[in-house]
Automatic annotation (TrEMBL):
Keywords annotated in UniProt: Cytoplasm, Elongation factor, Protein biosynthesis
Stated family: Belongs to the elongation factor P family.
Translation elongation factor P/YeiP central domain segment(s): 68-122
Protein name, as recorded: Elongation factor P
Matches recorded under InterPro entries: Elong-fact-P_C, NA-bd_OB-fold, Rib_uL2_dom2, Transl_elong_fac_P/YeiP, Transl_elong_KOW-like, Transl_elong_P/YeiP_cen, Transl_elong_P/YeiP_CS, Transl_elongation_fac_P
Native source species: Tsuneonella litorea
Lineage: Bacteria, Pseudomonadati, Pseudomonadota, Alphaproteobacteria, Sphingomonadales
Function description: Involved in peptide bond synthesis. Stimulates efficient translation and peptide-bond synthesis on native or reconstituted 70S ribosomes in vitro. Probably functions indirectly by altering the affinity of the ribosome for aminoacyl-tRNA, thus increasing their reactivity as acceptors for peptidyl transferase.
Residues covered by the Elongation factor P C-terminal domain: 130-185
Gene Ontology MF terms: translation elongation factor activity
GO biological process, one term: peptide biosynthetic process
Subcellular location per the Swiss-Prot or TrEMBL entry: Cytoplasm
Pathway noted in the entry: Protein biosynthesis; polypeptide chain elongation
């Protein structure tokens, strides 16, 4: 489906110069002289390259619709991750760097969404929020009541995040996977 250059939004998947790109950021600019344009930061879903491209309203670009399929994470095999198709029980091996910063949050048995392009997996989407346990939390500094009195803490998967002062070691919390931020105590 063709879309105008000014209709591009973050999260869109575009076919551009023979590659598949995911839009990370956009900035609409209207200079005093000349036509308005959209400055688009994109990441190549196949090889991970990043690029900035300027699209004018007259430019059209192909918006790609990816197929999504439910998979379950089974185990890690070296630097490969093994997933199972929940419908056919077929297994697929994918490189662990396909997950990027979300990799430490992948847990055994976790249900994930694979995005496929021409039957080829190009991205793995974890649930937005997961539960994790605090293994180490810094002590609250007395008198630290300024605006944000969050303190650093270490999760059981090795990720450091900021948590409110009342959270202590051993507490189960809910974490936003993609923001790597504290959401609340686990219920």
């Amino acid at each position: 489906m063709k879309i105008s250059g000014v209709d591009i939004r973050p999260g869109n998947i575009l076919e551009y110069e023979g590659g598949i790109w995911k839009v990370a950021k956009i900035q609409h600019t209207q200079p005093g002289k000349g036509g308005a344009y959209m400055q688009v930061e994109m990441k190549n879903l196949i090889d991970g390259r990043k690029t900035n491209v300027r699209f004018r309203s007259a430019d059209t670009v192909e918006k790609v619709r990816l197929d999504t399929k439910d998979y379950q994470f089974l185990y890690e095999d070296g630097d490969m991750l093994v997933f199972m198709d929940k419908d056919t029980y077929e297994q697929i091996n994918l490189p662990s760097d396909l997950l990027g910063d979300a990799r430490p949050f992948l847990q055994d048995g976790m249900e994930v969404m694979l995005e496929l392009w021409d039957e080829r997996p190009i991205s793995v989407e974890l649930p937005q929020q997961v539960e994790a346990t605090i293994v180490e939390a810094d002590a609250v500094v007395k008198g630290q009541t300024a605006s944000s009195s969050y303190k650093p803490a270490m999760l059981d998967n090795g990720v450091r995040i900021m948590v409110p002062p009342h959270i202590e070691s051993g507490t189960r919390i809910v974490v936003d996977v993609y923001e790597q931020a504290y959401v609340g105590k686990a219920g």
